[in-house]
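Protein modeling request. Please complete all fields; requests missing the sequence field cannot be processed.
Requester role: graduate student
Desired output: 3D structure, token encoding
Chains: 1
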Amino acid sequence: MKRIFCPKCDQQLSFDETKYPEGKILVFVCTQCTHQFKVRLGRKVVKDKTGEEKEVKEADFTYGFITVIENQFGYKQEFPLVLGDNIIGRRNKDTIGVDIPILTADPSMGRKHCVIHVKEREGKLLYSLRDFPSLTGTFLNNTLLGKKEQAYIHEGDIITLGATTIILNEGVL
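Delivered output (173 residues):
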């Protein structure tokens, strides 16, 4: 199932993309705002807000990824990490400055909640976590991180942001 979002109200819609050939243009009507919009399957180029076309890159899991666990607010999501800072927050129609926007209805998760920093040292990847700062705090394996505290994280560590839980999956160089 492929998930898309209404460009007007940000409502999530799902459909089975395997039923259609690549390059096919599908027309959708949003169930919330009745806005009509088109989606082309297999398209690798999109227009940004300025109307300029840019290439969409495939997800690269080389540097690891985080898994958002299914909960009452949403479904399982996976996001690739990149070298440097990865700002994590709640996805919002007006989300700006967030590298990993998590789709959730969890009001206790901030729009900019925490940062996972990835760096390479001597052929190994090192991951660290710090709170952005957020109002509800960031928990690492059920321990609250202090203000300005930075902690190293490893494969399988559980990070809790409000009522949302994510798990770190390390990459391989």
